[in-house]
Amino acid sequence: MNNLRELSWSLVVLWASLIVVGLVAIYSATQGPVAEFLPSYIQVNFYKQLISFGLAIMVLIGLQFVNPRTFKEGAYVFYGIGIILMVLTLFVGKEVGGAKSWLVIGPFNLQVSELMKIATILAVANYLTSRRDISAENLKSALIAVLLILIPAILVVLQNDTGTAIIFFAMIPVILFWSGLPYGISLFMISPAIIGYLSIIEWYWGLVAAVILTLMIFMIQRRTWLTFTSFATGILLVIGIQVALFQVLQPHQRARIEAFTNPSFDPQGAGWNVIQAKTAIGSGGLYGKGFMEGTQTQLRFLPEQWTDFIFCVIGEEFGFLGASLTILLLLGLTLRLLQAAATHKHPFAQLVMVGVITIFFTHFFINVGSATGLLPVIGIPLPFISYGGSALITNTVMLGICLNLDFYKRQFSIYR
Amino acid sequence: MQYRKKQRTQISVRVLQVCIIVLGLIILGRLFQLQIIEYDTYSPLSRKNSLRQKVINPARGLIYDRNGSLLVDNEPIYSITITPASYDKDNTPVLARLMDVPIKEVKKRVQEAQNYSLYRSSRLFTEVDFKTFSVIQENIWRLPGIGHQIESKRHYPVDSLQASHILGYLREVSKEQYLQTKSYHLGDKVGKSGLEMAYEEHLRGTLGTEYIKINAMGQNLGSYRDGAIDEAPTRGSDLLTTIDTDLQMLAEDLMEGKRGAVVAMNPNNGSVLSLVSSPQYNIRRLSGRIDSDYWQSINADTTNPLYNRAVSSKQPPGSTFKPMMALMGLEMGIITPETTIDNPGYYYRGRRYNDLADPGKYNVGKALQESSNTFFFWLMDKIVNKESIDRWHELASTFGFGQRTNIDLPNEVSGTLPDSTYLNRVLGEGKWGIGDQLSMGVGQGFMSATPLQMALLASEIANGGYYVQPHLVSSIKKSDGSVLLTNPKKEKIDWVDPENIEVVKNGMRRVVTDGSGRYYADLDSIKVAGKTGTAQNPHGQDHGWFICFAPLDNPKIAVAVLVQNGGYGSISAAPIASLLVEQYLSGEINRSYVYNYVKTFEPKKQTTDEEESDE
Question: What is the percent of chain B where pLDDT is above 90?
Fold first, then answer.
């Protein structure tokens, strides 16, 4: 065991703070003055989360006793087991909220896709750092890395869990970028997300973004084919999204997009969540309405307020101060992890950390973006804060692995 | 190679840092926008979302008689309500059993409620008895969607008292009134006649507001901040009226079966002791939920029971106007108490004007006693020639003729007291002559007055020439205990000479002792002074009038009675007035034969019903 001072205590403190913030919010959302109107299985959520916290502490401590090499050596094994379980879930899984992503093993309900995130990060990191000649600069190895992520991503899509699938897709550009993908191509890879987002709001903004991004790509990497491809992709995307919005999408899907761009279009229907979420946060003001005093929260105007919309609880009851503090804690966690990655010598550890950062940050940004009406509502939880034992444990495992790799960075022999 | 990789890592770290910070700032900026800049937009939205204002109706003010006995109070009515969206139709048999009504009936009503609104609560059963209400209340836990509601209706504790034209009834506020005043809610009850209407502002009180928390499903989650910002309703003010309940009941009893009106006043201050318009409507059947069959029947009734004859019907006062004429003649110096004229049995002025009084020598006293038309035709002739019709109008109007008394009841009419302008307008300039004016000298022709105005005339003579404001409410007791006095005006009519009043009083006394009132109006123990009258009715039997006051020396009551189609006032109206005087001053009726006479008196049926529609 190392000297305990070597442990990144700041990460531990940030982790614990976020969980405590989550517990406070979950308590308010499920134990408030009108808890009696909630179904009993929801009223116990706070206590279940408290137990998960205890479990998470043990997991975090336990992980520090694991030999860091295990993660690298066991990466493919975990990945293989994960894929098998994912396929299994597809056939015998339990459906919750439309997504067939739960595997029932005895008394436990296991969300395999959560664990699959860890396995995928480890596997990809292991692959990209296994040999000197493998790097994302190399097209073949880049494609293999993409494939390693795409396989679980597609399985998640088949489970009908769009939110989690987005997390997997988000890993692709970041991991490739970190492992040496040229800047221009990296920018090209994320440009569809930016163009797509803007052209949903207004088609000409998408067009402007396509032009600017193409110029940037041209300036970073003066390659005619890339510039041309980027521009063509951008234009096609803008047109494609317009066509999709008006021709291809089913009415309920279009309603969801419209709910985001113009919530007042259908305030009682698809726009409801967006309006109520924004109202909850906006009405919090600077100081908030006070613990258990949020009317939007207490009177159940928010759907899933202990999971996907938990940020609204914080925003409403603790105001701008509480909400910004929460944001700063989450930003602190990711930036501190990034610093750990930057100072680590071993590329495997770096890549694992970057993968974990990507997952945490994507969750955070999409969740808060949905709650504040910046993004269409995509149901994914806020890491460490939302109710959910599986997610809390998974996230803690990811952080625990990063802590472990950071903790043992001096002993981590690079090549065996 | 190693160096290049290290440099690349450094750049990548920077890029990722910048990305994280920029995206983080976007989120923080968005929070700042929503929570600080747009706070004023979202804060009311959330309040509106989660709070529902519930209006609490105040208790309506009570109405008391002059002795402090309760005439009108409130009684709870219990209703069972339904919110169809949360109602489980499987519960219909249970509900039907508890309500003790057929299942089919419940089904029908549930469907009606559902047709009205799926989400809003509506009344399923109204005015259920307390026992049924309690049973439902006990079982409400197993009847989701079923609720209960307690409202109130007017209740009249004195069983045999109607006083319908004094008290008035309530009905739901009309859409126009609701839109106009803003202080009503649809479905609120508002006074539509009588004191309920005249004192609506006072009786009503102020609405209270209760803030209730509701959740996204619209369920009631109890009071907001334990009622900290709720506003309690202020109950309406109570009215202390001048009504003498015993006298009112007797008057109603005596007028039963007749058409007409009775007004009894305290001549010294104008307080109305009794006011009856007959036929009356059943005030109890117009309380609470409207009994639509009854409502339709009284509206269709040709005798028009909703019409307040005491203040809204105007009839020629006939001979009851003669005391006024006498007073004016004396005042103008045209006659003295001793002025005597020769009555040949008619008055001749271009043509003969008939007189029912015997021929002979007449002074003003005898003219009043015998109700001699000749004397008053002659007097009117002198007045319009020596003075003018306008001077006559001026003096009579100070007694309240031709104008509203502004009694605290709605729909009062002014009656008609013609002057030259009026006659010019109605008959055309230069097209009216002495004949039109002479008939007004005996209270006929264009002249008309309400029973209330005639009671006022009796009062003014009784009190020695003071105008008194007729009123029904003496004070208003506010909910905080403070009392608002109505302070009705009492003013000396400046032209009236007390000596002349005495002459008229004595003339009126002679009517009762020796004239047309001697049969029914003369009481052994009480000195009554009065004047009979008969209003010519072109549509049928004449209307009988009687005005009187008593006791002569210290008047305590003045009465005017109109019996439509009763014929001579001396046989139709005078007995009623005298019974009221007797009851009021002696506390009992000793002349049971007069009472029985009145009860069996049957006026002739009116052939047409035009009088109600004029004005």
Answer: 59
Segment B281-301, tens digit of pLDDT: 999 988 877 778 898 999 898
Q: Residue B371, by phi and psi: left (phi above 0), alpha (psi -120 to 50) or beta? A: left
Cβ B557 vs Cβ B266: under 8 Å: yes
Which H or E run includes B348? strand B346-348
Closest alpha carbon within chain B to A366: B27
- Of the candidates B13, B46, B213, the beta carbon closest to that of A338 is on B13
Instruction: Return the closest-CA partner of residue B435 out of B342, B522, B347, B329.
Output: B347
Contact A57, A80 (CB under 8 A): no
Q: How confident is the model at residue B615 (pLDDT cuts 50, 70, 90)?
A: very low
DSSP B35: I
B558 closest CA partner among B566, B569, B571, B549: B549
Contacts of residue A260, defined as CB under 8 A and 6 or more positions apart, other chains included, come to A200, A274, A373, A375, A376, A377
Q: Nearest 5°: phi and psi at B157?
A: -70, -30
Rg (CA), chain B: 35
Long-range contacts (CB closer than 8 Å, 24 or more residues apart) made by A133-140: A135/A179, A135/A180, A136/A175, A136/A176, A136/A177, A136/A179, A136/A180, A136/A181, A137/A180, A137/A181, A137/A182
CA distance A251 to chain B (A): 25
Interface contact B34-A327, CB threshold 8 A:
no
Q: Which residue type sits at A88?
A: L
Q: Alpha-carbon distance A43 to B306, whole Å?
A: 63
| Nearest chain A Cα distance for residue B150, angstroms | 26
Q: How much is the ipTM here?
A: 0.93
The whole-angstrom distance between A41's CA and the closest CA on chain B is 19
Distances (CA, A) of B555 to A269, B454, B510: 78, 16, 16
Structure token digits, residue B558: 């003045």
Of B10, B42, B219, the CB nearest to A282: B42
Element (H, E) at B211: strand B208-214
> Do B417 and B447 form a contact (C-beta atoms < 8 A)?
yes
Neighbours of B559 (CB within 10 A): 34
- Tens digit of each residue's pLDDT (9 = 90 or more) over B174-212: 777 767 776 676 667 889 999 999 999 999 888 787 777
Sign of CA dihedral B297, B303, B305, B307: positive
Q: Which helix (H) or strand (E) holds B151?
A: strand B146-155
- Report the range of poorest mean pLDDT among A3-7, A202-206, B118-122, B143-147: B118-122
The amino acid that residue A282 corresponds to is G
Residues A163, A166, A170: CA angle, nearest 5 degrees: 145
What gap in Å lies between CA A36 and CA A31, rounded to an integer? 8
CATH number at B245-473+499-612: 3.40.710.10
Residue of B nearest to A297 (CA): B215
Interchain proximity B49–A276, CB inside 8 Å: yes
End-to-end CA distance of chain B: 114
| pLDDT per position as a tens digit, A22-41 | 999 999 888 876 666 666 77
Residues pairing with B416 in the sheet: B448
Residue at A214: amino acid letter: T
Closest CA to B416 of B368, B461, B386, B453: B453
For chain B, helix, strand, coil in percent to 5 are 40, 20, 35
Which residue type sits at A346? H
DSSP tag of B319: G
The domain spans of chain A are 4-407
Q: Two tokens at B4?
A: 């290049």
d(CA A314, CA B27): 14
- Residue A100's DSSP bridge partners are A95
Per-residue pLDDT band for B114 (boundaries 50, 70, 90) equals confident
- Rounded to whole angstroms, the Cα distance separating A27 from A48 reads 11
